[in-house]
């Protein structure tokens, strides 16, 4: 299943670049082509002095279901290594993590896998009261990505992070607010507007001060994040070829429950 050029919408106005997941019919699941578009959009926003802030948003009913499994398996079958640094997904994550300007996210509905881990690299996150966050990597025989194994324990504490990453069960907007993953919970119909309003406030501030403030906030962990992403990527690639992942993806394709008793 290929992506349409319209699966990611990029719009810049009044100093704010808005990146919209526009594949609601496929639950905003992300393909390699979509990651490439987002990585390019972030690079353009970074180099454009007129851009002061970036906003990520999805549909009012779904932020993102995470990776498009069919596209993911097709890329892997085509010989693309899961930890190949040139792959669009890793280019997107590294660009996102290192992006120097403020990033705001508006999250409504499910945010699965990378739909949640990418928020750890955003500066302000606003959630609809229908938001549900989940990190089901273990359920697919895989491990976390996006440096979430580093950043989640820092934010949630070890035990809550272990619960989120080892069980992979969804947690709702109010729980995300309690642990600091989101700044505010609002009705879904207001979520994008709230994010845009906050982005416009940021865009009116001096860019040099915003960039330096963000750099100082993240300075102590920038190297750790980069190194953890690479470590996770290597582990992800190894597990991708293992029996648990093969069983998980076979079960997905066959629409049955996986059996991990031999994994």
Description:
It is a single chain. The chain is of the alpha/beta class. It contains eleven helices and nine strands. The protein has a six-stranded mixed sheet with strand order 1-2-3-4-6-9, sandwiched between helices. The chain has a three-stranded mixed sheet with strand order 5-7-8. The longest helix has 19 residues, at 222-240. The protein starts with 7 loop residues before the first strand and ends in a 9-residue tail after the last helix.
Key structural traits:
263 residues; six-stranded mixed sheet; 9 strands; globular
In summary, what is this structure?
This protein is an alpha/beta fold and 263 residues long. The protein has helices at residues 32-47, 69-77, 88-98, 114-117, 148-156, 158-167, 173-179, 188-203, 207-218, 222-240, 243-254, and strands at 8-13, 16-21, 53-57, 103-107, 110-112, 124-128, 132-134, 171-172, 184-186. The strands form two sheets. A six-stranded mixed beta sheet has the order 1-2-3-4-6-9, with helices on both faces. A three-stranded mixed beta sheet has the order 5-7-8.
């Amino acid at each position: 299943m290929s992506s349409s050029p319209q699966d990611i919408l990029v719009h810049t106005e009044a100093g704010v670049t808005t990146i919209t997941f526009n594949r609601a019919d496929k639950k905003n699941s992300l393909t390699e082509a979509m990651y490439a578009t987002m990585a390019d959009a972030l690079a353009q926003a970074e180099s454009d002095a007129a851009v002061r802030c970036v906003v990520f948003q999805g549909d009012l009913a779904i932020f993102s279901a995470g990776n498009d499994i069919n596209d993911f398996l097709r890329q892997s079958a085509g010989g693309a290594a899961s930890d190949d640094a040139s792959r669009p997904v890793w280019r997107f994550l590294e660009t996102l993590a290192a992006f120097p300007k403020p990033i705001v996210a508006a999250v409504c509905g499910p945010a699965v896998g990378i739909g949640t881990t990418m928020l750890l690299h955003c500066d302000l996150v606003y959630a609809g009261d229908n938001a549900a966050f989940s990190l089901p990597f273990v359920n697919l025989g895989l491990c976390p990505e996006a440096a979430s194994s580093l950043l989640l324990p820092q934010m949630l504490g070890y035990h809550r992070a272990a619960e989120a990453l080892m069980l992979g069960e969804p947690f709702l907007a109010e729980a995300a607010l309690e642990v600091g993953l989101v700044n505010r919970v609002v009705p879904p119909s207001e979520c994008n507007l709230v994010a845009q309003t906050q982005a416009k406030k940021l865009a009116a501030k001096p860019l040099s001060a915003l960039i330096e403030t963000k750099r100082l906030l993240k300075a102590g962990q920038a190297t750790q994040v980069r190194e953890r992403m690479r470590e996770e990527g290597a582990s992800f690639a190894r597990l991708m070829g293992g029996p648990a992942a093969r069983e998980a993806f076979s079960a997905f394709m066959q629409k049955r429950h996986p059996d991990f008793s031999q994994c």
